[in-house]
Amino acid sequence: MHTTIPVSLQHDPVKLILLDQTRLPEEELFLHLDSRDSIYEAIKKLRVRGAPAIGIAAAYGMYVCLAQQSYPSLTAMKLDFAELKQYFASSRPTAVNLFWALQRMQIRFDTVLSNPQARQQDVLLALLDESTAIFEEDQAMSKAIGEHGLTLFDKTKTWGVMTHCNAGGLATSGYGTALAPLYLGHERGYHFSVYSNETRPLLQGSRLTAYELNKGGLDVTILCDNMASLVMKEGKIDAVIVGADRIAANGDAANKIGTSGVAILAKYYNIPFYVAAPSSTFDLKTAHGSDIVIEKRDGEEVVNGFGKRTGPKDVKVYNPAFDVTDASLITAIITEKGRIEHPTTEKVRKHLEMGSV
């Protein structure tokens, strides 16, 4: 059984190549980006999205942009690196993988510059190597998340699984996070009926998750977000799996807006609720979810998201892109290291200190 997972990003290596997710599912258009403004715009406008993919795009973007220039000195290159890093960091405030990846590039940059014999070419080669390492590590982490998540299921039945937003191949460089167990299971003869919440206002569930699951050969049904309770009540859902853009030290998890409501419903109907994310998504400097900065986006995404106005022009619109699910609602967090059952601050700390299993 073969599973096709869409490839979301790569490099050539003088351009960053992204599948424009704003065009899906109607058109598969790859963008070839080689300027800082075009890469910033792609991240800001969700042409590339999903916490791991954002981090990878920013890392490759740093290399691509610096490779376009010839600097009079390493000092000038260092100043431009700092400016570019700050510019990319300002694109999306909630997804911690963006800042994690940029900081890794900073550390690698500084390491090379500590050598008095360093040349610009040495810096560029190191940045390309680091961004490629981030890319390849993400692929390995996605596969490991899938392996650990798959232990929650067996082959004795068809599992009804609900997901919210997109946390598959389009959001990473490989199998994804929340969708990784489903892809691996499908390859190995497990049976899933996936219910993909459409995920208002930008419909990442219906445009992206349903698109890639269908392309991968899995059984997927699109739901309006407000149908989740009914479908759970009807007994169609055995588990909920979502991704995360930032996880606080105590296990509170920020994910696409609407996720916390799904978690509350799952708790009411006694359905396990899982969060799948790599260890890089944890932000131990943020103690609780209430401290996570929630991105506020343009209200036009709500009332005029796809070319047809659905609200009056003179009415205010509130458009937070994420919400935070309390750790008390999470049955387990699945990472590349294993599972954190009923997460707490101490359990998270111990989990992240151990090696991959």
Automatic annotation (TrEMBL):
Leading EC class: isomerase
The entry's keywords: Amino-acid biosynthesis, Isomerase, Methionine biosynthesis
GO terms assigned for molecular function: S-methyl-5-thioribose-1-phosphate isomerase activity
EC number(s) from the headed UniProt entry: 5.3.1.23
Active site: 245
Binding residues for substrate: 49-51, 92, 204, 255-256
BP terms from Gene Ontology: L-methionine salvage from methylthioadenosine
InterPro entries: IF-2B-related, IF-M1Pi, IF_2B-like_C, Initiation_fac_2B_a/b/d, M1Pi_N, NagB/RpiA_transferase-like
Residue(s) at site: Transition state stabilizer: 165
Reactions accelerated catalytically: 5-(methylsulfanyl)-alpha-D-ribose 1-phosphate = 5-(methylsulfanyl)-D-ribulose 1-phosphate
Pathway recorded for this protein: Amino-acid biosynthesis; L-methionine biosynthesis via salvage pathway; L-methionine from S-methyl-5-thio-alpha-D-ribose 1-phosphate: step 1/6
Function: Catalyzes the interconversion of methylthioribose-1-phosphate (MTR-1-P) into methylthioribulose-1-phosphate (MTRu-1-P).
Protein family per UniProt: Belongs to the EIF-2B alpha/beta/delta subunits family. MtnA subfamily.
NCBIfam families in UniProt: eIF-2B_rel (TIGR00524), PRK05720.1 (NF004326), salvage_mtnA (TIGR00512)
Name of the protein in question: Methylthioribose-1-phosphate isomerase
Record organism: Sphaerochaeta globosa (strain ATCC BAA-1886 / DSM 22777 / Buddy) (Spirochaeta sp. (strain Buddy))
Taxonomy of the source species: Bacteria, Pseudomonadati, Spirochaetota, Spirochaetia, Spirochaetales
UniProt gene name: mtnA
